[in-house]
Structure formats: structure tokens, C-alpha cells
Amino acid sequence: MTATEERRTPRSVITAPFGSWASPFKIERLTDRVVFLSEPHGIDGIRWWIEGRPEESGRQVLVRRETDGTLTRMTPEEFNARSRVHEYGGAAYLVSGDLVVVSDFTTGRLHRIVRPGELVPLTPERQWRYADAIHDAARNRLIAVREDHEPDTVASHGEWNNELVAIDLDSGDVAVLATGSDFYAAPRLSPDDSTLAWLEWHHPNMPWDGTELRLATIGADGSLGEPRTIAGSRTDWISQPRWSPEGVLHFAAEPTDWMNLYRYVDGKALPISNVEAELVAPDWQFGYRTYTFLDGGDILAIARSSGRDNLIRIAPDGSSITIDLPYTEMNGLSVDGDRLVLRAAAPDKPAAVIEIDLQGNVTVLRTANPTIPEREDVSIPEHIEFPTTGDLTAFGNFYPPTNRSFVGPAGELPPLIVTSHGGPTAEAFSGFATGIQLFTSRGYAVLDVDYGGSTGYGKAYRKRLEGQWGVVDVDDCVAGAVHLAEQGLVDGERTAIRGGSASGYTTLAALAFTDEFDAGCTYFGIGDLRAFVKDTHKFESRYLESLLGPWPAAKQVYLDRSPSLHAEQITAPVLVQQGADDRIVPPSEAERIVDALFERRIPHAYLLYPGEDHGFRGHDAIIRSFGAELSFYAQVFGFEPADDIEPLEIQFLAESRSRDGSDGA
To answer: Is residue 121 part of a domain?
Structure first.
């Protein structure tokens, strides 16, 4: 009998407590032959993408796929093809004809790939980082965003400095093209090489608060003429400028309630689309591509609404049709002739780099997870809406416990794990997520909340979070948990909340400022908002001004909403997990909340992972952190996990049970 036949043999159904089920998804599935796919491109029949590989300590590898399907690793062992501009990076490589350039995460330098595995440094050995490079072939140079971390620069500016620069492809010499703004992104060269467009913005903005689309002619010496702003402002968001093959500049903007497409013609911004969907997402990284051009003037775009992505085709007159695809999450559009290359996922399909023709026929080029799940064991999310504070509505993806071999005892309801995205302007991911399936297949229910502030529901919904971080997000997580309990779908007495980064803060805030949750797990979450202002990196250094208020004028708000300053209000056990090399939320943040929990003798555990930064990428950290979380919930909720995992030591848990007379059952 083959392994496939054995899996499909009918199984007897076992009755066991929720949370204790033996799962067909082993914890090792999180990393076993798994890769994290990003930045797909299709060029002259060749396909390119980045693979993050947990088995290589999370390093990112540039991969080339030949027309016959052969995969070639382009970057050498130990090389991490990743950009660190704005810390979040993105747009870490460039392919233009025979020119292939890639960023080195460790040094920040750009390298040319002369053949697979062989690199030649291009930029000087300085404390400079680069992202979003484009090829200015007519002038034998690259144009890119540079982030200058040289000590003299930091000393004179008070922070590192961002600029647009030109990099000579022969000498590697770097010349500044534009400077003076706090941030730059998306340099885009017109097809006739005469004009450069780019985005820039200033503190305290994040890009979605307001950016300016700038335009300048390029002189005979390669320098830029006097730039002018053609769209956007400090309060108007412009994103993804892109030239059509005919030389017309396009971009996304939201003068209405939705981020739609515009073109710049005869000195005016003219609307192209008018759909009730977001056609671009907030610019957390460089190089996002959610629309592209077809021959004949049509545009393909990813349109997000109601928590799902659709691929639409927009005609020159603005009318649009939806291309039917079996995917709910899409990004990284790249057109190559009559083929489209992108990254896509569905509730029952792991993320993959795919190729489609214009009729919607799909070819899978590379899957992130080679183990295709059995449909009967996959929890398919239901997009739900529920009432929340202020007679408003919030949204989320609800995953019921699902395992064809197990059912819960009669009369028992499953424990609920509430989670939410980071950002906090991102969105709940609806594609197959192994982490969520590891919970649901063990008998947990999961709610992934798209709280007020999330993308995909219009500008008004995204702006709900302005000045209200730690309030709106927490209220919506609480409201979602209460709604599910009232519907009789989950056990309202066994509810946990978890999250990382911004969601880690929401987790801590929910534990400190509400009594809804019985346990919490935070990954690199913020405990003291004052410290975040002081310690975080430049890109986000003023972000809290829009989320909370200006510092120090709004100091009391920062104090009131900092969970670690109100640890005496936390009564539920907390698991804190942190990367030792995190520069976005440094370990000192985790240690503040841990110290506060220890001082108050609140049950807790703290795990610090050497070599990991903001988002665990290495095999050991990924496996250990999830196993620790399973052990944590099992101890708190009082059942034995089916997995053979390393037990987690939770300080003060036994003492807490003695105080309240509970045995944990």
C-alpha cells in the first residue's frame, strides 16, 4: 500500500477533548521542504523569484527557472539575497537582459551575478543599503533608493539618510540624484529614458498617510532637472507609479474611499478604474506589483474586497471583468508576453509561484509547501462580520476545528485562539497557512481578525485606527471572540489571543485592558510605547503619531496604552517569544514586559531565539516556538497534547492555581 493510499483509507472517528487531537499536520510541516516565496518575475520566458529557506537559517535565495522547468540557484551558499532598507526591505534583485543584480543582507552591498553562484561586488564597501533598483541602460547605470548608515551621516542628520542615487555599472561609483526628503521609493524610468518618476514623503508620515509623486527630466549629464509634484501631498496617498508601454505614467490614489488607478495625461490625473476594492496595499516593502499592462491597453489588477483578492481586467474605458481563478490571495504581478506570473494561494492551496494565460489556465511553477493537504483535514475559513464598539461592524476569518479522525465530546465546545495581522494596516491572510491548520487540526477554533485599520475595506475602515491603536484593534478582537461564543461555536471560557509585531502589541493590550482572554502568546510585541518611539528604526519612528498622537504632547495616551506599564491588570498567563537580533522591536521590549510579569508573579514563560530578527526564519526557532505554544495552551487549558513536544516551563502557573483553587482541568 502506498503512502497516498494509506492516507486515503477510511479512518475510525475518535472522540477526544478539543485541543488534544492527533493531527495529520506534524509540527515539522512548518519547515520540512518549505520555502517562502516572494518577488516573482517573468522575463523572456525565464521565471525568477526569491525563496526564503528555513533549513538555511532563513536565508533568501534567488532562483531562476528555465523554459524546460529546470531550477537554478543563482546566489551562493551563505549569501542572503535580501534588502534592509526601511528594515522591511523588498525589491532585493534586478534582472534586465544579461544584467542580474542582487542585494546582500549582511553588508548592504549590491552584487552582479556573473554566473550561478558567482558574484562580483558592485557598490563600495560602505554602510550603505540599496533597494528598488532599476536599469538605466542608456546611461550604463542603476537608479536606486539608498539608505546611508555612515556614522558621519547619522551624526549630522540625527538618523540615517535616504536618497535616490545613480550607480555606475562599470566603476560602481554612486552619485546622488535626489535628496532632502525623509523617504524615497519607486524610481521609475519612462520608456524613452527621458523622464524619471518617483515617490517621496516626510516624517511623521507612513506612505499611506501621504506621499508625493515627483517627476523630473533627465539631463545630458544624467542629473535630474527641477522636479515637480504631479499628484499626492502630505495627506494624499499615491502608490505604485508605473509607465505603460506607450509612455503614459500610471499610479494608484484614493480621492474616493477606494485605492484605484489613475493616469497622468496633459498635466491632469485622470481616473481609470472605479471599483469598490483596493487595487494596491500599504507600502510596507519596496517593489509591490499589484497591477500591470497588457498589449492593447488593458490593465490586469489585483482587487481586494471582503477579505479576498480577485484578478480583474480593466479596459481603457474603465469597464472591468473578473478572471475566474481558484485563488483568494495574489501578489507580485509580472507580464511576459501573453503569460502572467504571480504568487497566489487559496484556503486549500499553499502559496505558489504560478503562471496563467489570459483565459485563466494555471500552471504551478513552485509551491511553498510540497505536501499537498488532504481536503478533508483542512479548515476552510468563513469570512464573517460581527458587531463591534460604536455600532460598527468588523470582520475576520473563522476557522472551525477540522480533523476527519476526531470529534469533540458531546456538549463540549472548542477553545478559541484569536489572532490578527501585523502592520497594523495589513489584512487577514485567507490562503492555506500551515500555522493555523496546525491549531485547527488539533481541535482549536481560530479567528483571524481584520480589525478597524485593516486593508481591503476602504479608506474609512483603514482610518478607524488613527489615534485609536490599542483601542479599536482590541475592541474588535474582543467583539469577535464574544460573537463566536454567543453563536455557540466556541468555548467562551477557554479563549486565547496571540500575535506578532503590531499584533503582538494588540495581544498584550487585550490582556492588560480587558478580561476576555484566558491566555496570550506574543511574538516580538510592543509593551512600552514610549520605548518604541525611542528604540525603533527610522521608517516607523514617527508612526505612533498617527496611531496614538504626537510625542510628547500625547504622553498620557502612550502611558495609558502601554501594556507593560499596567501589568498589574494582567491576570492571564502569557508566553513571550522574541528574536535576539530584532531591530524593529528589540529584545529590550520583550524583557520589559517579562520583568513586569515577573514582578507581579503573573504566570509566564519567555523564550529568546539567537540569530532571529523580526519574524522567525530559521528551522529551529520556527519549530520550537510553535511547540512551546502548544505546550503553553495545553497546560493553561488543562489537557495533554498528542504531540511529543518539549514541555514549556511556565513560571508561577502552579502558584496561580493554588491561589485560585484551580487544578487546571
So the answer is: no
Output the DSSP codes for 531-548.
HHHHHS-GGGTTTHHHHT
Q: Give the C-alpha separation, 508 to 503, whole Å.
A: 9
Q: Please say if the pLDDT value at position 661 is more than 70.
A: no
**Among candidate residues 395, 371, 375, the one with its CA nearest the CA of residue 385:** 395
Q: What is the number of structural domains in the chain?
A: 1
CA distance 338 to 361: 12
- List of residues 6+ apart from 660 with CB closer than 8 A: none
State how far the Cα of 368 lies from the Cα of 568, in Å rounded to an integer: 43
Nearest-angstrom CA–CA distance, 595 and 35: 36
By DSSP bridging, strand 445-450 and strand 228-232 are unpaired
Provide the 3-class DSSP secondary structure of residue 3.
helix
User: Three-class SS of residue 134?
Assistant: strand
Bond into 187 cis (ω within 30): no
Q: What is the pLDDT of residues 89-144, one digit of tens each?
A: 999 999 999 999 999 999 999 999 999 999 999 999 999 999 999 999 999 999 99
- Whether the pLDDT of residue 663 is over 70: the answer is no
Domain membership of residue 86 (yes or no) is: no
Rounded CA-CA distance 625/30 in Å is 11
User: Given a cut of 90, is residue 7 above it in pLDDT?
Assistant: no
Total-model pTM: 0.93
Residue 115: is it exposed, middle or buried by C-beta count within 10 angstroms (0-12/13-18/19+)? exposed
Residue 349 maps to a domain = no
User: What's the whole-number mean pLDDT along residues 425-443?
Assistant: 95
The mean per-residue pLDDT over the stretch 299-305 comes to: 97
Q: At what angle do helices 502-513 and 472-486 cross, to 10 degrees?
A: 70
Residues 6+ apart with CB under 8 A from 6: none
Measured distance CA(9)–CA(5) in Å, rounded: 6
CA 41, distance to chain mean position in Å, is 19
Classify residue 164: in a domain, yes or no: no
Q: Pairing between strand 99-103 and 128-136?
A: unpaired
List the 320-323 sheet strands across, edge first: 291-293, 299-305, 308-314, 320-323
Only one residue has cell 496604552, namely 561
State mean pLDDT over 213-219.
Answer: 98
At a CB cut-off of 8 Å and minimum separation 6, what does 221 contact?
Answer: none
Whole-angstrom distance, CA of residue 499 vs CA of residue 560:
21
pLDDT digits (tens, 9 = 90+) for 247-256: 999 999 999 9
> Is the pLDDT reported for residue 245 higher than 90?
yes
**Residues, the chain, total?**
665
CATH number of the domain at 589, please: 3.40.50.1820
Q: In this predicted model, what pLDDT tens digit does every residue of 349-384 receive, in sequence order?
A: 999 999 999 888 999 999 999 877 788 999 999 999
> Range of 574's domain?
13-27+374-660
Parallel/antiparallel/unpaired status of strands 291-293 and 59-65:
unpaired
Look at the block and give the residue holding cell 485547527: 440
CA-atom Rg of the chain in angstroms: 25
- Which of 561, 490, 617 has the alpha carbon at shortest distance from 53? 617
DSSP character at residue 452 = T
Helices (H), 139-281: 151-157
Question: Among candidates 454, 462, 468, 473, which has minimal Cα distance to 546?
Answer: 468
Task: Identify which of 19, 177, 64 has the alpha carbon closest to the alpha carbon of residue 639.
Answer: 19
**Cell 563600495 sits at which residue?**
124
Q: Are 334 and 340 in contact (CB under 8 A)?
A: yes
Task: Supply the DSSP symbol for 377.
Answer: G
Distance CA 198, CA 217 (A): 12
